[in-house]
Amino acid sequence: MPNSLKRIGMFSTPTEAALFVSVLEANGIHAMLRNDNMATLGYPGLKQVGVELIVHEEDFDRACAVLDQDVETDNLEDESVEDNGTDMSYE
What we know:
By secondary structure, the chain is of the alpha+beta class. Helices cover about 25% and strands about 25% of the residues. The protein has a four-stranded antiparallel β-sheet with strand order 2-3-1-4, with helices on one face. The radius of gyration is 13 Å and the shape is elongated. The two termini are about 25 Å apart.
């Protein structure tokens, strides 16, 4: 699958996750967040969802190396996710 995505981390807030996106993009790795809007809703009875940090599968190992080197990575994990067709290209 040419555009497989992998979740590299799960965070409790979009702000925390965005910091990791910045580190990856500064190193030339495209990254995106999933559930970043859902994590801020906070309706009573609504299950808390985490913010997922997603990278292309082919960038996963390099992204892990960058984050291990640059920041504390307690929230990082190795988990494949479905490609929902999201365009991760930047113009």
